[in-house]
Structures are given as structure tokens and as C-alpha cells.
Amino acid sequence: MKRSQINAALKELEAMCEKHHCYLPPFCHFTPEEWQEKGHEYDEVRCFWER
Hints:
- The protein is 59% helix and 0% strand.
- The chain is mainly α and 51 residues long.
């Protein structure tokens, strides 16, 4: 799957969520650089994704 297809699917998901008033948590939009800057308050989320 091409990255452009993934990006399009993510945009579609975000639009659907907004339409139904269901919002994703802020960390879903963090860039890799932002993850590097985050402290221990995000360790639980990091551990989930590292499984």
C-alpha cells in the first residue's frame, strides 16, 4: 500500500470521526520528533505501540 493511500484513509477516518463527534486523542497526531520530546507521561502509550 502506498503512503498516499494510507494518508487518504487517515483523512477519511478523521472526517468520519468528526462527523460523528468522536475525536481521536492528541497523541494520534504526534510526529516522530514530537514523540522524542514527550516525557514519562506518555510511557503507557509508548509501551502499547512497542508490543
